[in-house]
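ok so I'm stuck.
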Amino acid sequence: MQELTAQVTSSLLQFPAVTIQAFGEDETTPDSVLRGKFSRGRNGLAWLACGPQLEVGNAVTGERLSACRFSGVHEQPPTIRVVKEFSWQKRTGLLVGLEEAKGSVLCLYDRGTSRVVKAVVLPGRVTAIEPINNPGGASVSPQHLHQTLRWLFGVSAVATDVGHLLLVDLCLDDLSCSQVENEASGLVVATRIPADVPQRREAVTGEGRHLCFQLQNPSGTAISTLCYISRSNQLAVGFSDGYLSLWNMKTLKREHHSQLEGGRIPVYTVTFQEPENDPRNCCYLWAVQSTQEREGDVVSLHLLQLAFGDRKRLASGQVMYEGLECCRERYSLDLAGGVFPLRGQTSNTKLLSCQTVQKFHNRIDREDSVDEVISPDTSVSIFVWQVNTHGQGKPSTYLGVFDINCWCHAQMPDSLRPEESLRDCPYFALWSLDTVTSMTSPDLILDIGVQEQSLSRRVPPSYPPAMQFFPPSTYNFDGTCLLSSGVVHMTCTGFRQLDAILSAAVQTGSLGLLTGCIKLWASKEQPSSAANLRFVLDWTWSKVIYTKDELDQICVPLFDGSCDSIDPQTSQSLQHCRLLLSNLSTVLNCFLTEAQELTEKGFADLTNKQVLISLMSLYARVVLWFCRSSLLPEGLDDDMRLSRSFYYNYPLIQRYYTGHRQKLERLSRGKWDSDCLMVDGMVSQLGDQAEKLWQRDGGSGKYPPPSLHALLDLYLLEGIEESYKHAITIYLLLDIMHSFLKPTEISVDSFPTAFAIPWGLVKLIQGFWLLDHNDYENSLALLFHPATIKTVSWQHVTILRSLMCQGEHRRALRYTQVMKPSFSSTSEVQLFLTVLLSNRCMAEAWGLLQQHTTKVNIEELKHMYEICQEVGLMEDFLKLPFTESEQKCLETFLHTNAGVQNHEILLVHHLQRANYIPALQLNQAMNVNLMASEKVTEDDKVLPGASSEHHDGVVEDAWSDTAKPANSSTEETADFQELEMGEDSEIVEEKPFQMEQPDSSELRQEA
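replied:
not stuck anymore, here's the structure
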């Protein structure tokens, strides 16, 4: 899902200078922390408090409406702890809780006169205030409240840090004179509700004190929040140890008390939410647990379901739930851990605001509206929180909207499903407020309020879409940010309806609707078809770009060393990106197959986009597999690597291959091509792109890659077959497995299965790996296995070079006889000749030369001559039945190449062929050259005689064997066939990565 972002719609509306100056006087004291909130009432107030200073302003303009600096009983000024809006007798004010040096004071503050109307001394430290309100009086019905509360004029619930829960009489029937906070009235606490409440209250007020009822005895555990729920007539009480109580205000008895699943974390705030037309008489209560008073890292949301026995409509038109039957937690969401893809370690999370918005349709025009129980058709809870992350200069701020009706339609899950994240949740929409914080920085955001009347979404007046195509991400609303210096207005715009439908189809994999529309629009020429196709195509590509950016953000900490573990949410986000890219690829494929009138350029552009999305989808799958296999995140320091049981030990593997290449260089002696590691051949098939990629992070450009990041980036390269990329990965996984002392305890067999890699390819790569690690027998067994994919030309050449370079001549011959490779180029033919001649297979070598030479090739003859001379097969070579052209070519070669030995061999050749005149001429020329040489050594003098003796023996053989065919390697061939017949033909076990362990002592010594 594309990220939703709030937009700032106004400049900073600053508070008056006098307000800023008033707070400046108290900011120096350690206990003076600036607090501020919007009132949720209809008066549109915003209050700020710091130390004893209270400022009340207009929530829209920031205009100062009222101010007060409270005084204390002692010389030390009090501290404002709690502020709640309160209205009485057409007057608007605030209930303010002041903390004194000893005890607390509850003040009723009149905004209009900026004076304290009532002040009452409280026991302990006040922690929460909640207005209940009651006009009071004998002639006034208490309605849904307890009968005794009719004798109290204005009721407020007050809580303290030691567990006091009091219902305080505000005495609003006596406003003849104002009080001051430093001369507060006393409080008379009734632990039980007396029978004679009117007389008791009259006596207490006559003494200038206030009466209160204590609902529960002090428990020693602080009460952290209070919330009066008018629709269920309950007082919700949250405690600092994570417990939540529900008090029935009609019976003044506790109906429920339990600890939330978050454990001993303070209940920070509570808000009520009601679904539309729930047949079970259920409503819901959000309880937010947070340690933000200590700036901790815990903010968790818990949705409790309250089931009642009855739901009835009052005369006022409101709905009242009665008879609580059960209360249980139905949903939880941790905003501090795992909600977003991993971008670094979270230092702390802080809740800024919590608000419920409910809207009711007007049903007066309906005949059954009189008896109908009204429920909200729109019911959302809005949460705003900040997340601080290590390494980031400023916190990130988010606004989330939970639609309870969409949650019910989604089968009421108890948490985010594994494949979901907040950005694609069907019942929770997320807006980023970073644009707002960028504009308001460095001012702190104290609160954010959403204007209830602005909440709307673009619903067609008739035939509204199904709920699954209408998630909360389609809402539009306006909001206001309360800052330490003023207010800023913003707007949050959701997706359009068509955007929402397309998003829902891609998110859920319901692509039939989308592809069906594409086929319909492409097949029928309608005025809107082209525009619709263009819109869907542009939308699809924009989703691809957004998903790619999200994937990048997830992957950065996996490779840069900023994290050492993967949380479940990151895995879920990777999986979500993979599914999105796969579904979007399906949509683009539909465009390619169904589009009728595409220009050549348009088709090429669409094809390129399809290739890119396929690469990204595969990349996401591979990254996800590496995360699940504990190979990612990739630790950059040794301590992080050693703390894990399975990791990529690049220095160890790099040292092995560097040493192996040096060894091959020594063994080649300039005769062989030392570049005969199979893995180097595999990498070379990828082209220069891989070499440049592996040089990017400080590598040599050769295998192994300098990091897993460099390896996985192969999957983003274009123009390379997917199987080639998988082959390199399988090879490296084998190296990682066998770089540990106990490799059998670690299995990565799931990689071929996860990516549907043929077992034949896996066996081929295993054979290559064993060959590079000098386990020749097991390597050939895998390469000869009937299930193994047959090798191609470059692989034949590299395998033979590797065996020959390391002196494994018989195994090289065995490979050629079993695999029967075909050779076309001169270099390949020469290599095969070398294998045959090194195994003294003269007849087979001559046959190969005859087969691949359409005309006399002096280079191949020269190569065969040099090999025969090296391995001692010259006599057999000279007995070969040369044609006239071949004989002439050989004579030309031997004659033109200076050297006594070449001339002697040519002399023998003439004698064997009964060419006496050329033989005598050559012998005479040789003798003349020897006699003409200056400084002839004794050895030189002996040479002609020795040569003559040699020639005589050869001539004698020549005369006796002229009719005999050249020696074939019949004996060697029989030996090989006998060896092949005796080989064990046991089938290799199907698990591709389990093989006989080679003697890779070089790797293990390093480990």
